[in-house]
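Help! Submission page says 'invalid entity' but I think these are all valid:
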Amino acid sequence: MARKDTPEQAEFREHCRRWLGENRPAPPAVRLPEMAIEVSTEDHMGYLSDWQNKCWEAGLVGSDYPKEYGGGGNHGFLRIANQEMSKAGTPFLINVIGLGMAAPTILHHGTEEQKRLYLKPLLAAEEIWCQGFSEPGAGSDLASAQTSAVRDGDNWIINGHKVWTSLATFSKWMILLARHSNDHKYNGLTYFVAPIADTPGVTVRPLIKITGGTGFNEVLFEDVVISDNMRLDEIGKGWTVAMTTLTHERGAAEGAGSGGGAGVEERIEGLVALAKKTPRGNGTAWDDPVLRDRIIQVAIRANGLRQTMRRGRVEGLIDHPMRLPLQGKVVMTELMQDAAAIGMEIAGAASSLYIRDENAPDQGDWPLGYMNSYGMTIAAGTSEVQRNILGERVLGLAKSK
Amino acid sequence: MSQPKDFGFGEDEKLLRDSARKFLSDTLPVDKLRKLVAGDHVEAYESAVQPLGYDENLWKQIVELGWTTLAIPEEAGGAGMKVVAVAAIAEEAGRAALPSPLIPTLIATAVLCEAKSAAASSALGRIAAGEAASIAITNAQGSWEPTDTDVVASQSGNETTLSGTASFVQDARKVSFFVVSAKNSSGIGLYVVDADAPGVTIRPDQIVDLTRDQARVEFKDVVIAADKVVATDGLEALRRATPSMLVIVAADLCGAAEWQLQTTAEYAKVRTQFDHPLGFFQAVKHPIVNAMIDIDRAKSLTYAAACEIDSEQATAEVAARMAKSAASDAAAFICSRSVQLHGGIGFTWECDVHIYFKRQKHNQMLYGDGIYQRSKLGEML
């Protein structure tokens, strides 16, 4: 059923609107990147952690988490806060990995002590989090992770190599998937929260993205000692815990995220606007019926996605409970990718101009967005893996491995 | 009027849809459908006049169930239900590939409801009483523009007569009257013409689709009584009815596409090659998933458009054209994959997929395919 605000929720929504209206921060000296995971300077990090901290103090972050862990202790407020932040166009929340993945995982699998220790500083952006899942040899086949965790009394000794680690240079903590046993592929995995800042044996090295930007890293562990009380859930339960994290990560990728960033509708409006202002022959790109057809195709897909999310809440119009939810990630990320590609085609020769060129259409967002879009179609299970999941879990086709 | 978040698809609509689905799966399972429309290829494609291939008794039951009166206002003897309910019924008709005048009758109803005249109400009363109808508004070129008709209405004194030919008239041999568009002195008029009226000749087309009939309908000095003049200026009614027409065909497309999807997925589970079920291979699995994503998009847009019509949104035509575009393209893709992924058997007459393939290719073009809808949208966005 469609969700309608309760009186308490309506009051909270009003609070969010008023507070965001009154507390919108002045823009930073240097323009912010598109997404939290691209932040690469101390200035931006400081600016954005201050902003998240203020939002947390105002009750807009962690609103649904229990009070004893630094949350607001409410129900159904988080969605409202995110909607209002997105509408207000205020800066994004910086601790995205923490909020979107680590916090729900800790809440679900952590001990009382762990919840008390980690959640409040996470919500308040006092401690930044990153994710240590992928490895050079474990991408789509995540369960083949080889980073080892060897038991040593009350401690574990970690050795290995994690990649695509966004925000690692600023992070105090990492959610870490490691292998305690080679006897079983899945049951040989254990999940930890690993300290990575100022930790002997941990090396963080930046990886340069296709865009030329930094923002993600590789993290090397060499005989890093961590305490057993940093293990999340039981030994051998790592894969189950990782699935909790991934479920939240895929949801976040659909845009249920934490405010800011160009949404789908914004992208489509941007495409139409670009076409109408880009000269082509005696008119504009919008007058070219072939280009216009392509723009309208993605506009239809964008509206289709919006209406599918709406239909997902209408019980009578759903054929299979997982059919629509499992499509969200692949549909959204491929739509964003195709929209950016068409933006480049509309810009034509000027799509060659990048973000530092003053003549670049829309400040070079189209080539930048197009290249960055591959991060979304690859991360959290590639589009190919998503299609396997849909075919197998929804349509019941034979497993492809 | 604001829009309900659930598309207005509530308990009543769900009950109606579920009972329609059950009725059709009980009375018209696919093996019966095949006997009805594709029993013999020579008869289907080489008869001088194509067989009608529909079950009149089943049609009578459908009329008794009230499916043709759903959208007719209560004051004209109908159930006065919303377009979202009509879409749900059309989706089930598509799922069963139902051969019947149901879809044209629902479309004629939409046009008559918009005309708002005594003649329109009286024609709606005939549908409410169980008659079937079809619109005759397309010219020989197959234009979907409501201004294009090859029929002319001439006036002499109080007498109106129609002459000319309407082309691509859907299920012409199954209906008792037509709603005809004709050029007159004030633009485009709409007229009710009985199928057996003097001067009317139905010339059946030889068509690919086995689940419907189609004809050119010739009018030779057909006299129109004053109470059959639905509108002397009917262009606005046709334009206002366009979103509903598109949604009805889009819903039929979605229902049939879902059948094609499930049938193809089922075959990919049971057919084994190279020691694996076909669905094991990603070259088979991924296109089936893509088809599912396309169908879900089309279905969401179709119900959204129906809801926009019901809540009288100014953007209803945009929504309906998006729905028809998405549904036409989704159908085209699953048509292609359903035959290809069935392999050799999919290329034969004995495999059921061709029955849906043909209905879908017909529906894809009907009232404009994806490219056509997007070209119209280009003028609106």
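Support: the input was valid. A stray whitespace character was the problem, and the output above is from the cleaned input. The CA atoms of residues 63 and 130 of chain B lie 6 Å apart.
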